[in-house]
Amino acid sequence: MTALAGLLAHGAALLLLPPLLLGIIGKTKAAFGGRTGPPFLQPYHDLLKLLGKGAVYSRTTTWMFRLGPVLSLAAILVAGCVVPLAGGSALSFTGDAILFAYLLGLSRFATITAALDAGSSFEGMGASREAAFASLAEPALILVLAGLSGSSGDLSMTGMFGGAARWETASGLVMAAVGLFLVLLTENSRIPVDDPATHLELTMIHEVMVLDHGGPDLAFIQYGASVKLLLWSSLLVRLLLPDAPGAAGWAVWALGVVALAAVVGAVESTMARLKMPRVPQLLFVAICAAAFAMMFMVK
Amino acid sequence: MTFLVAAVALLAAGAALSLLLAGFPRASRAASLACLTAGCLAGLLPALLVFGGGELPALRIPWAVPMGEILLTMDPLSAFFLLPVFVVGLAAGVYGEGYLEASRGHLSAPAVRFFYCLLTASMAVVVCAGNAVLFLAAWEIMALAAFFLVCSEDRKPEVRRAGLIYVVCTHTAILSLFVFFAVLGGRAGSMDFAAMKAVMPGPGPALTGLFALAAVGFGLKAGFMPFHFWLPEAHPVAPSHASAVLSAVVLKMGVYGLLRFVSFCPVVPESWGLALLALGAASAVLGVLYALVQHDLKRLLAYSSIENVGIILMGIGLGCLGLSRGRPALAAIGFAAALLHVLNHSLFKSLLFLGAGAYNQALGSRDIEGAGGLLRRMPWTSLFAWTGAAAACGLPPLNGFIGEWLLYRGLLVGPARGAAFAAAALALVGGIAAASFTMAYGALTLGEPRGPAARGAEDPGGLMLWPMSFLAAACLALGVVPGPAVRAAARAAAVIGGLPPAAAAEAAGAISSPLPFVGALGAGVIGLAVLFWIVRRALLTGRRVETGPTWGCGFSRPSPEMQYTASSYAQPLARVFRGLLRTEVEAAAPSGYWPAGAGFSTRTPDPVLDRTVSPALALLERGLTVVRRVQHGRLQYYLLYVLVFLVLVLVWKL
Questions:
Q1: Can you give the C-alpha Rg of chain A in angstroms?
Q2: Which of A193-202, A215-224, B430-439 has the lowest mean pLDDT?
Q3: CA B553, CA B276: separation in Å to the nearest integer?
């Protein structure tokens, strides 16, 4: 019975919570700017509005363009099955961490091919940057995973991000958190890698890839992006905060995720986006941090 | 075994009939197609029988060649390599008939068919040979048949150059193998593999020497760095179905040789494992980086083969580390990952080469920059190529993921920090592979056509489409139901590691226990995507769904030439790795108020062929020109040489 309740809680948190994180980030940015800002639940209203609209498709596009949003969202949600929220993941097996990384890769592949299908130079540019930065972020993630599997002796997400912070390897943990946070910012197209609020197409990455999507397609994309943010946040929270059984665990986890969203909002309010050629340098920092984390953790 | 002999005989008959009936094109085609199909199907039977748990007795036929004997044996390792030989051989062979027909006389059909059948038959013998003389003979037939396939269009100078490079490399390889087998055979007094295995030396210089010979001989065939340099020259110029077999199967014969050699060794030094792991990682990273900066589709695929051989080599290195450290589970997972990737790469790479052949014939060129919009014009080819491209990026729920997933598992629970860095390299390779394949696929099939050839392109005939659909379905099936292939790979891995049955069974169980989850989640992605597609359709019914131009960010007259090109797409990563790539750029910037013209082109020379081997050979040639001064064609001086020589001999004898 508790297992079923846990599974239901996992599903509900995975499906319902994500847009709230975007609301928190928006509210934080507004607070830094001295504004009231849109309400916390604004992203839900936006999604509902988009789902209620019709659609306009470019004449250049084919089924590939229409496949992008649905395949991307499907891959992200399935990846959500193996990510531990509070208490554990819905499904846990040896090597699920690799499946997580590659399912996000599948989602990216679908988004990129859909973007290229529109035949616009802007979307091609966004796709090119997305592919380049993602391929540099991936080694950092794998090095963090290698460190965690080395210290926990387990290759499942639930075992590696066990929630019981291993403070005997505190230095490794800090390094892993730094690496993972930089990967989180990159994968979720946040400042300083990408600016989700910019108004100039030339400076965008993720937003410019979905320029031609509208209506329900755009709703799928934005919802998928918010789920992805929740997944990455959950990994970081589980890395740093202790786990507790039952409701206490959920409370700690929710607090952590909300705080992390506020941190992302704060970073976004206090930093400018980096110049594009500087982004790889930031990712090399992430790789180095992850490499040090691995060296500290693997005996 | 009878089936295997029948398969080889049928393939040989197909080869012979193709030439004998050359005067009757339709009969020649029908006969060789029938022989090829029957031969490949017959050859698959014994392999499947071995994986079903059957034991096949060895077949011995006396042979007049000194120390030679026609000895065919089939253990799980041989049987595993028979799968790509016959599956890809059949698919590419059927496609080849359509391809030859569509090439409208550019290729000599009887000759291509003859060498194709011979190549397939010889590879079957290579993996089943139990005698070194037979092995070398089959190996040489394979190498020569591949050479003639590479040189099919020998009227073109670049084809002749590629053929020359290939034949020199393949003969260097076989020279090394001659020495290798001669040394071992001399010790054993017999050329039987079983006898050779019994006399393998213990750790020491002798074993290291044998390892070096095997690494050069088999490595030149497998094509990992730095022995890869013939591959991006030779594979693109062959007919596409032959390129498919060359890249997907012939390279794997080198891998087979290396694995067979490891299975001979009673002890495996730790340094081998580390060396192979490092070599594999370097090969994978450099291979995929060079793939990223190619504009020639088949050259890109050839570099991607180098990458994948690197991944396979990482698996072999991990397996060797497991053996040397006495960890059978690690050895099994490393070798199983390597073998699984052998099978998976052979499926998706042949699919991609077959797709490349269809694009090549439709466009009349292998350049990806001038294409575009082919998904609309060649829907089936592009659908199958999309599957192949996603599998090549190692994405679930396709087969490419399974092998890489096993390898990651081995590397992450693996021996040490070095393995973790290898895993990070593998992650980088996965990311850049995704960039390369989205680049090539996007430039070819997505967006608007950039030239007249792309505007008029059409799907090829059914004879070319059906094999592609079969390979694409195989890629999906092995990704969703990976169990049987993984268990087969684990059985073959146990043979390489010489694991006792109990340890082998335990390792195989550990390897394959999470597989149902992986398959189910992969199927879950497909199911959810279909569900969302239906949801969207339900949402949009009754609403306004319009079509319009692509949003040009306010610019109202976009043209196809303004689309992002493959080179621009690759630029951010090429910039990051410019120190490794050293791309040569020729740019003529527009100048003045009314610029008349501008140009831009990039070329990335191969680090070994163009930057090392060619300069070294040029230096050697320059050194030898000094000696060539004596050879100038003047008869008087030649007579003088004779006189001087005679005088010298006279003086010496006095």
A1: 19
A2: A193-202
A3: 51
Question: What pLDDT is recorded for position B285?
Answer: 96
Q: A105 to chain B: which residues are within 8 Å by CB? A: 393-395, 430-431, 434
Write the DSSP assignment of B171-211 as a string of letters: HHHHHHHHHHHHHHHHHHTS-BHHHHHHT---TTHHHHHHH
Average pLDDT over residues B32-38: 93
Q: Structure pTM?
A: 0.95
Report whether B303 contacts B482 (CB < 8 A).
no
Report the DSSP beta bridge partners of residue B546: A56
Tokens at B33, concatenated: 């197609």
* ipTM associated with this complex: 0.96
Domain ranges of chain B: 1-204, 268-533+564-586, 609-653
pLDDT band at A166 (very low <50, low <70, confident <90, very high): low
The tens digit of pLDDT for each residue in B292-350 reads 999 999 999 999 999 999 999 999 999 999 999 988 889 999 999 999 999 999 999 99
The shortest CB-CB distance from A60 to any of B408, B421, B448 is to: B448
Contacts of B425 in chain A (CB under 8 A): 139
Residues in chain B: 654
Beta bridge partners of B59: B72
Task: Pinpoint the alpha helices (H) of A188-245.
Answer: 206-209, 216-240
Distance set, CA A65 to CA A11, B376, B448, B583 (Å): 29, 12, 13, 33
pLDDT in tens, A229-286: 999 999 999 988 887 788 888 999 999 999 999 999 999 999 988 998 899 999 999 9
| Residue from the list B421, B540, B563 with its beta carbon closest to the beta carbon of A55 | B540
> What is the dihedral sign for C-alpha B232, B237, B241, B245?
negative
> Where do the domains of chain A lie?
2-297
- Which DSSP letter does residue B560 get? G
pLDDT at A162 over 80: no
Instruction: Answer yes or no: is pLDDT of A164 > 70.
Output: no
Q: Does B646 touch chain A (CB under 8 A)?
A: no
Lowest mean pLDDT among B307-311, B581-585, B631-635: B631-635
Which of A55, A78, A155 has the CB atom closest to B413's CB atom?
A155
C-alpha–C-alpha distance, residues B13 and B35, integer Å: 7
Residues B245 and B142: their CA atoms lie apart, in Å, by 12
B287 HSE (CA, 13 A, CB side): 33
Least CB–CB distance from B408: residue in A95, A103, A150: A95
- Residue B414: its pLDDT value, please? 67
Size of interface A-B (CB pairs under 8 A): 279
Q: B-chain residues within 8 Å CB-CB of A101?
A: 427
Contacts of A68 in chain B (CB under 8 A): none
For residue B410, the chain A residue with the least C-alpha distance is A95
Per-residue pLDDT at A1:
52
Contact B547 A201 (CB under 8 A): no
Residues 6+ apart with CB under 8 A from B392: B304, B308, B348, B349, B352, B400, B433, B437
**Secondary element (H or E) of residue B566:** helix B566-576
Average pLDDT, chain A: 91
- State whether residue B344 is helix, strand or coil: helix
Least Cα distance to A250 among A236, A238, A239 occurs for A238
Mean pLDDT of all residues belonging to chain B:
92
Kindly give the interhelix angle for A279-297 and A121-152, rounded to the nearest 10 degrees: 10
Q: Tell me the residues of chain A between 167 and 226 that have a Cβ less than 8 Å away from chain B.
A: 201, 211-212, 215-217, 220
CA distance B443 to B567: 10
Could you tell me which of B345, B334, B100 has the C-alpha nearest to residue B245? Answer: B345
Q: Is there a contact between B322 and B416 (Cβ–Cβ < 8 Å)?
A: no
